[in-house]
Structures are given as structure tokens and as C-alpha cells.
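P.,

For your records, the input lines for the assembly:
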Amino acid sequence: MKIKINYLVGVLFIVTFYSCDKIDAPYREESSKGIVYINQEDSLTWNGDTLAFAADNSTAVKKVLAEDYTGHLCGNCPYAGVMLNDTIKPLYNEKLVVISVHAGMFASPCPGGLACPGGAAPPGAFATDFSNVTGNDWDHFFAISSSFGNPNGMIDRKDYPVSNVKSTETWATNIQSEAALTPECRIRMITRFNPVTHELGAAVQTKFISSQTDTFKLQVVLTEDSIVDWQEWYAPNPIQYDPNYVHRYVLRGGINGSFGQIIATGNTISGDIKLNGFSYTLNPAWNANHCKVVAFIYNATNKRVIQVEEKSIE
Amino acid sequence: MMGRNIFPGFSLFILFIFYFSHSVAQGIAGGAIHGNFELDAQYYRTDSSIGTPAVPEKMLSNGFANFIYEKDNFSAGLRYESYLDPMLGFDPRYKGSGITYRYLSYKNEEMEITVGNFYEQFGSGIIFRSYEERGLGLDNAMEGLRLKYNPYKGIYFKGVIGNQRDFFSKGEGIVRGGDAEINLNETFSCLASSKTKWIIGGSFVSKFQDDQDPVYILPKNVGAGSGRINMIHGNLNISAEYSIKANDPSSVNKYIYKTGDATIVNVIYSKKGFGASLGAKRIDNMSFRSDRSATLNSLMINYLPAMTRQHTNMLSAFYPYATQPNGEFGFQGEIFFNLKQGTKSGGSYGTDVTLNYSRASDIDHQPTGDDLGYTSDYLKFGKEIFFQDFNIEVNRKVSKKLRLILSYVYLDYNKDIIQGSRGIGHVYSNIAMAELNWKINSKNAIRTELQHLYTKQDQQSWALWLVEYTVAPHWFVAAFDEYNYGNEIKDSRLHYYNGSFGYTKNSNRVSLGFGRQRAGIFCVGGVCRNVPASNGFTLSVTSSF
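C-alpha cells returned:
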């Protein structure tokens, strides 16, 4: 027995001893390639091009992030999308940033997807796959399509984890209350795009307006607006399968992963500035003229988005 | 995302207790249960003059109770904690109630096995220390398995694996480690009678955390190892420990890949009426946490002690030092001696004198301009001084009923570094204190303190007067006033008054207080928390059974 235990202790030591990973350069992922920081607050270079923020003491405005979880096979979703993009959005204009997240069963491409209409739809319909890793990760993490169904959404991801998923009829009031909040930080962005290589460079500057003690993350994603493609649309619209539906603000992917990166933790003092640079290569099939970088800051614990900003890449 | 893991664990615990106490009762029944209970509550009043934060709940409380069952080689225990809501100054993530600590343990002559929660430390703790410091709101208890094994006399092994407590949930990182220690004099009979005792030890700890970072390629497994030696010869005790930690980019070190290391050396000499100690440490990039994004006091795997004196008087503790895990060179020297009774200097009853000096400064940094961060000349000091403390204490029994303690403290406190403030820089303070204890008779005693802190920086000078009257063995009443009379801003020349009384009977103690508490920083052993200003009634109840 004693010998066996000696072996056990020995094995524990050996296993523990080898549990160590040595990382050699390069230390950064693809999204950081080509980025060189001139300083930590306002200047960096992307592939040798300087992206520098001028001083700005203008008053910050609280902007609101509305996430519409949808799918091209979700027949009720167009009503939610139209309401958000055509009715609510014009009330707030740039104060409201919308992301349409195609995820879940109703976002599956056809043929093959569980919700595909089969022979009821014309051949080739719904073949586009708008889903992506980031959208699927968000949908899975917040359990939206699996637990709540489509259409549903989140407004600044508030009230997590109890009632963060908001039904469409509550979007307007939630957006209104969020837009009335005092901004806690300001986001500015500078973008560069190389149409030949389809490479995108982005500098995101975050200035905290109020002191914080929690951990905050920066999430940067890419959206593409006004994609004309198929959409299933229940009655009363007589066209059940609309090939000319305009998909607004479609999430194309996460530039810094699905859950972003920490930019502030512990005591963050009012006036603190964080600068982050990103590199990303667009799919050549995407319309760069319609693409925007969306950056938002959220509390890592309660997931609440405290500020959001978007900028066209061209 | 780790959810609350309270009720499943509790159910398991109850099942175990039930099983052991009924199904195999012959070995377990008849044991003893003991524990303790503590409740601290405060009713907060708004006091805009001292900047108290709003407390919508009006009253906040922290409470807990430990229950420990022991029978022969078996023990089990649990702790129930309740923070409804956490008192000001404690991390709001504590909000809630539940069983946060439970364990089952069995030990015999050779081995001890613990499942559930446990606290443990390897060596001086510089690569692993799981502990609780309630005053700081710090609890990084492990939850998992622990094995202690003593295969031969003088040889000790420890092995641990588990997650760390993170308020009411667990950190996502897995911590596993082993420690081996040999007491040469116990193991080798030829050394048994040697006057020089040798203890040698070594540890290795590794943490696992997945890499989901979009920017950095992060090491999922981070290892740290240490070696230590302790020599005891008569009145002399010398100990040293060196540790090294592999690349561990984190929020604390701003995601650099440099290897970390730490060295701690202590030399202590003591005999009757005289003692001297000298300690030195060098810490370089040694924040080690089971979650690389964790900060403040959460999910710390190791413990980096402060090599400074832990002051207990209110004004000398005004500027406490917090260990700087990213880089620190520190040393401390202390001499204690007794002036014999009956001599001119020692007086009729003798006098104790303690001289202490400590200093902490930055280490050398040579930036590399890349993600390695910097290189550092091991023996070179950095330019920035973090902290200096020179203090002297004279403790004299003047008569059978009177004891007088006089102290002087000089502090150089780099507030910008230690507290992360801006634009204050160094605070140089001179603090003088006098404490008088008057034992009126066998039941009644009075203790009073006069303290003065002089500084031109920060909030400038303070004075404090405290008086405490004790009626043994049950009652005490105390009052103090901390007065920021030297504040350059007239409106901030405020009194922080406080009064309290309490009753103690057997192992139960109840105390009530009322008054203001200034905003500040509270530290234990170099680990600190911020305390906001408050004003209101306090209630404290402690009991053990």
C-alpha cells in the first residue's frame, strides 16, 4: 500500500510539473497583426498607416445597442426587423445601433437546415448562410433561440441574467429608457480599408467619463447593411418567400472574438483612455460600402452594454 | 460561466453526514460539534460632509457561522455566509447567502484526505496559499481534493487540485499543485542530535484556464515552482525561498509574457530580552491568479507578504503598504531589546524598546518594446520608492497600575503607486502616539490614546484621542475622535467621532457603536481593500461554541 501511494504522489508531481505551456513570439492573434501602438491613448499605426485621434472635448452621448436575433427562415422575424429598423431607428438615428444576429435553427441555410421549407420554396432559395461564429456564440450564451425563440432581442444586454431577453413589443420602451441614461464612456473610431486586399484596420478609443470599479470588455464586430436576399415572411404579407427582402445591419463576424477583450479592470478613473487597434480581412463577397465596424463596451460581470459606436469602413 | 454551486454541494454534504452518522454509526456517532458565529451590521446615515455613498437598503450586514463535526480521525464542517447586502467596502459580488465552505476529512498517522473545501499553503505561500482574511473580504478557498502524506519520519507530501472560491461561485481556472518537505534531522538519525536543524522543501503549482482571448495567444497552463530552505541553530533562524513562474499574461501585468520570480529571505535572532530580524524580498511579475482577468483580491493563487510593520494604531495605520506584485524590492530590519528593571533606563519594572525600519522600492525595468514587457537587472533598484517606514516604540510599566507606550513613526508613502491615485505622489508623515493603560483595580481599567499625524500632503494633519473604560469581565465603553484639523480645505476639517460599548459573557460578545468612519484603505499583510466613508450605527455579535 505504501509503495502504491508513493507512486501516486510521484505521478501527481510529474503531471503537475509538466502542466506548463511556454509561448514564444508571436504572442498575438491575427486580429492584432500590423498594429503598432505609438502610444496607449490616441495613436497607432496599421500596416504603416497612422491612425491618430485628435483631441475632443465634446459632450458624450449615450448610444443604445439593439440586438435583433433573427433568421431568414423565421416568418415572424421581418415584422420585428421592420419595426426596429423602420419605426424605432429613425427616432434615434445614430443614437441607436442595430445588429441583426442570424443564429439558431431559423438561420440555417437550405437545403439541409431543419426549418427549410423543402419544395415549398423555389430551388436555390435560402442558400445564403448569414450565421457566423460570433452570432452563434452569443445566441448560445444568452440561450435566445434555444430558450426564447425568434424574434427576440436584447437592448444593451440589460437585466442579465434574469430578463435580458426582450420581446419585440418591449424594445421601444427599453430603448427609450437606455437612451436617457448618462453616458459612462465615449467611443471613437478610425477605420482604414484596402479594397485590393480587403483588409480592414480599425482604431478604437474609449474614454471613461465616470470612475468604475468593475471589469469592462470591448467587443468589436463587423456588420453589413442592406443585403438583398431571401426571407420567409408569414401572412398577412402574401409573399411567403421574399427573394428581395432587405436584410439590415447583419452581423458578419467578431473582429476580436465572440466576447471581446478586457480593457478596464479594478479602479478605472474618470478620464482614463484606452486605445485598441484591430486588423481584419473581409470576405470579398461582402459589400464593403455597406459594412460598418460596431464597437461596444460592456460590463464583464452583468454583461450590460454601457456604450456603443459604429463607423463605416469606407 | 460558473454558476452558484451551493445546493448541490450542500445536498451531497448532508447525504454524507447522514450516511456516516447512521449507516456506519459505530465509527462516527458520539463526536463533537463546535463552531462559531459572527454578525456585523451597520445602519447607514447619509452624511454629505464626509462623502458617504448612498445606501438604499439603509442597513447592510455581513454574517457567517461555522459548524465543525469531529470524531476520532473524521471531521466535517460547513460555513454558511450571508451578505444582505454586503457592507460598504466589501465587494458587492458577495451579495447573497449560502453555504460557501464544506468539507469531509479523514486522517490517520500517515495520511490525511480532504474533499470539498480546504485552505492550504506551500512554504511561505509565494506560489500557493489558499486562505481567508475576513476583514479584507478575501477568501480563495479551494474546492476539490487534498492529500497529505507522511510516508516516513520527517518527509511530508501535499497534493491539491481544485477550483478557487470566487465570491458565491468558483473561478473557472483549475489549480493543481504538490509540495514536498523533508526535515533532515527527523529523517536521518545521524542528524537527530545535531544542534543545527535543516528543513528543505519544494513546490510546484500549475493552473489551467482556457484561451478565448481574441488578441493574445495565451498559455492555457501556467506553472510556478519554488525551492526553500530553513536552518535553525540555537537562537538563530534563517529561511529563504525562491520561486519562478512561467509566462502568465494577465490583467494585472498588462498581458506581458515575461517570466516572473520572487525571492524571500528572513534572518531572525532572539533570546530573552533581545531580538533582531532582517528580511529582504524581491518580487518580479508574480501576480498568480486562477483567472487571468481577475483583479483586486479575487482568485489569487499565491501570497506575497508585505515586508513592513503591521501598525495597529489608527493614525499609524493611516497609510498602510500594499504589496506590488508587478515588481518590488523590499527589506525590513527590526531590533527589540528590554531595558532591565531596577536600572535607571529600565525603571522599576523594565522597559521594552522596538526599533523598526522597512523600505519598498521598484525593481529595475528595461522595456523591451514588445509583449515580453521588460528585462530587469536582478540586484538593481528601480528609481521609484514605494514606501519607507521608520518607527520606534517604548513600552514601559511605570507602576503596578500604569503602563505607558510611546511611539514615533515616520512614513514615506507613495500614494499614487500604492493606491492608484493621481497627482498626490509621496505623502511624508510624522506620527507620534502615547498610550496609557491604568488598571484602577482588579475590575476597572482605563486605556487612553493620544495620536498625532503631521503631513503637508494629501489631507494634511490629523489628531486623535481615544478613551476606553473596561469593567471586567463583561463591559466596555469606548469613544474616539479623529480630527482632520490640518486640512487645507476649511470645510474638510472634520471630526470623525465614534462611540461604542459592548458586553461579553463567556464566549459571546455583543457591541454597539455609533459614529463616522473616514474613507481609507485597510490592509492585512500587504493585501488591502478600500473602505468608503460611512456614518451610522454598528452592531457586532460574535459567539463560539
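Two observations worth noting. Chain A has five helices and 16 strands. The domain at 28-312 of chain A is CATH 2.60.40.10 (Immunoglobulin-like).

Regards
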